[in-house]
Amino acid sequence: MVANLTQTLSLLITANHILDYYSVFTGYGHISVRNPLNNATFLMTGNGQPPALVRSPQDIDEFYLEDASPANEGSQNPMNTSERFIHQGLLKRFPSLQSVVHSHSRSVIPFGIGGVPFQPTYHLAGGFIGEEAPVFEIADYYAPNDTQDLLVNKPRFGQALANTFLTSAHNASSAADVLEPDYNLVLQRGHGFTTTGTSIPQAVYRAVYTTWNAEVQASAITINDAAGQNRGVRYIAQQELADTLTLDNGAYTRDWMLWAAQVGVNPLYKNDLGYASIPAPSRSA
Questions:
Q1: pTM of the model as a whole
Q2: Which of 62, 66, 73, 83 is catalytic?
């Protein structure tokens, strides 16, 4: 956990740039982090800036964890962060989470609507995805007078999405006692996906590799269909999932160093706080 607010804000700005660079974000998409100085609030971009153009603390707003209301009178228009309830719902529900990413990735959306489960295909994306990613169906939670635009823009939608990070067993009557999510990734039908992490770099790693896994899985399905032999796609096995999760949990620091360097020299991106570093990896990934 980064205890320094300036470094946290620098990482948050850098994360927006990395996620834009790798097309996880477009003009839309958002990432949040708990406020390291105030456990009652979280931070995310809030002035309607495209992620690529976020550059300073003025582009980041603070919201209360309890109800997602603005924590500062000078905050930007909350309507510009209408889906802050995605972040509020997850950070409030699961104390271990530090960062949340929401994306509208075109490579991932088909797996939320096409009837094909989203499954891990290779070692760097295997562990955190699990056997398959659940799909959040917002239509199950619409009230008669709701605007049905697929946005998670109400507290009950955010709470429902957070509960999708739990297995059906944990979503029973004892769900309130479950403080750790069962899933690290949930797809959203017709919308995109949300993933989480215990740090900003880990959440970014998972978001980028989610999109790459989608590309690999789609290619594998296409090749398998073209072969016409109905052999099926071979996904990561159960024991491999457990072992690659350990790998994934230690691998993201190497990618972050590269990704931060890439956006740091790209003239599109500006970070008024500088591109903060994180500890170098202690093992080969």
A1: 0.93
A2: 83
